[in-house]
Amino acid sequence: MSAGLGQGAILGVGHDICSITRIQNILETHPDRFLSRICTDAERAEANTRAHLASYVAGRFAAKEAVYKALSAADQTKMSWHHAEILTGQKGMPILSLNGRCRDGLMSLVADGATPQLHLSLSHDGGLASAFVIVSSMTDK
């Protein structure tokens, strides 16, 4: 370990795969209802700028499922789809943020004096969206 770096711990890992065709079929029959149930306002606004809506939404769906799996050691009572948000950052990098019950669950896993960290990777290939989430923490000591 390099001087000045604290110690880290992996608190949870989650992975999910979602069929883009399945999401496309749902969006064709219940677009507004599905989007408002799964996506935050900011995600819906970002989705409306995308040429491939189903691919975008499938990635967010898989990421949120992966978040729940990564937080499986926490109390997941009343966690909702809107408590995890995935927006696009610089250079297309997905930015994951938690609020509400997901944030509470995350903080219940983090030791005193440690800082939580969220890591998300999204991939799309062969009609599938895949998401991998690592929840970790870093101490300053």
Describe the protein's topology:
Blueprint: E1 8-19, H1 20-29, H2 31-38, H3 41-47, H4 53-70, E2 84-88, E3 94-98, H5 100-109, E4 114-125, E5 128-139
Helix pairs in contact: 1-2, 1-4
What would your notes on this structure say?
29% of the residues are buried. The protein is elongated and about 50 Å long. The chain has one domain (8-139): 4'-phosphopantetheinyl transferase domain (Ribosomal Protein L22, Chain A). Strands 1-5-4 form a three-stranded antiparallel beta sheet. The protein is built from five helices and five strands, in the order βααααββαββ. The chain is an alpha+beta fold and 141 residues long. It has helices spanning 20-29, 31-38, 41-47, 53-70, 100-109, and strands spanning 8-19, 84-88, 94-98, 114-125, 128-139. A hairpin with a 5-residue loop joins strand 2 (84-88) and strand 3.
Show unreliable segments.
none
Q: How many angstroms separate the termini?
A: 12 Å
Number of domains: 1
- With strands numbered from the N-terminus, the spatial order across the biggest sheet is 1-5-4
Count of runs of 4 or more consecutive helical residues:
5
Just name the CATH architecture.
Alpha-Beta Complex
Structural class: alpha+beta
Strand and helix order? EHHHHEEHEE
Largest sheet: 3 strands, antiparallel
| Helicity range | 25-40%
Characterize the overall form: elongated
CATH topology: Ribosomal Protein L22, Chain A
Relevant CATH superfamily: 4'-phosphopantetheinyl transferase domain
- Provide the residue-averaged pLDDT: 93
Radius of gyration using CA atoms only: 16 Å
Q: What is the name of the CATH class?
A: Alpha Beta
What proportion of the residues form beta strands (DSSP E)? 25-35%
